[in-house]
Amino acid sequence: MKLEKGKKIAFVGASGSGKSTMLDLLIRFYDPAKGTISIDGNDLRDVDTNSYRSLFGVVSQETILFNDTIENNIKYGCEGAGREDVINAAKQANAYNFIMSQPQGFDTVTGDRGVALSGGERQRVAIARALIRNPKILIFDEATSALDAESEKTVQEAIKNSVEDKTAILVAHRLATIVDSDEIYVFDQGRIVEQGSHEELIEMNGYYRNLYDIQFASKKI
User: Fold this and answer.
1) Which of 15, 177, 179, 219 is in Cβ range 3.0-4.6 Å of 198 for a Cys bridge?
2) Cα 36–39–44 angle (5° rounding)?
3) Per-residue b or e along 134-157, where b marks 16 or more CB atoms closer than 10 Å to that residue's CB
4) How far apart (Å, rounded) are the C-alpha atoms in residues 72 and 83?
5) Of 3.30.450.40, 1.20.1290.10, 3.40.50.300, 3.30.390.10, which CATH number belongs to 65-135?
6) Cβ contacts of residue 57 below 8 Å, gap of 6+?
7) In sequence order, what are the residues at sequence separation of 6 or more whose Cβ sits closer than 8 angstroms to the Cβ of residue 24?
8) pLDDT in tens, the chain (221 residues)
9) How far is 26 from 53, CA to CA, in rounded Å?
10) Measured between alpha carbons, how far is 57 from 141 in angstroms, rounded to an integer?
11) Is the Cβ–Cβ distance between 216 and 203 less than 8 Å?
């Protein structure tokens, strides 16, 4: 597998197929038992871990927000950021308008685990939190899987805005979220069984095509 800078990469497959394990390896939560993962030709085991992980911004399925203001939730882990940085990140994450509609704007308290916000709003705050650090690589790990159709569409737009000029890795069950990716890796039972663009994978008429037919039997993407 080769992930190129500035590309939009997707991992798809059933639960337990190996997608999350691959992410853990890429972020270096642990090292591979066999083989090598390298960046710019350097084995990750020879790279400073903290410096390497600073390249990443991660948005997961379960958004963790604290009982604090929206602003403080966005700049969590990036306390040197100012209000202008927070606003810019919120705009890029398609979150600015809903934030400004809140009673106290960026000073609105989200409640424990973000209970005062909807699922889609929480995810857009999470995207803004990832963006404010200006990471080189953005990872979206099932970031829309728990949302209703309307919220998913809004978050998809936020993801599209946020990945411009960045390397992006999207993990998803729903193929609608990844069909425009530059390269799609299809996982099954811990192995990559297919790879290519959406169109190329459809033409292969294999595992990915089967997933496509199951999800979109009555409609086209």
Assistant:
1) 179
2) 50
3) ebebbbbbbbbeebeeebbebbbe
4) 10
5) 3.40.50.300
6) 130, 131, 133, 135, 137, 138, 139
7) 30
8) 888 888 999 999 888 888 888 998 999 888 888 888 888 888 999 999 889 988 998 888 788 899 999 999 999 988 788 999 999 999 988 899 999 999 899 999 998 888 999 888 998 999 999 999 889 999 988 877 767 777 778 778 878 877 877 899 999 877 888 888 999 999 999 899 999 999 999 999 999 999 888 887 645 54
9) 9
10) 11
11) no
Encoded amino acid at 104, one letter:
Q
**Distance between CA atoms of residues 166 and 85, nearest Å:** 18
Superfamily of domain 1-55+137-221: P-loop containing nucleotide triphosphate hydrolases (3.40.50.300)
d(CA 221, CA 219): 7
Token pair in block for residue 186: 């299809």
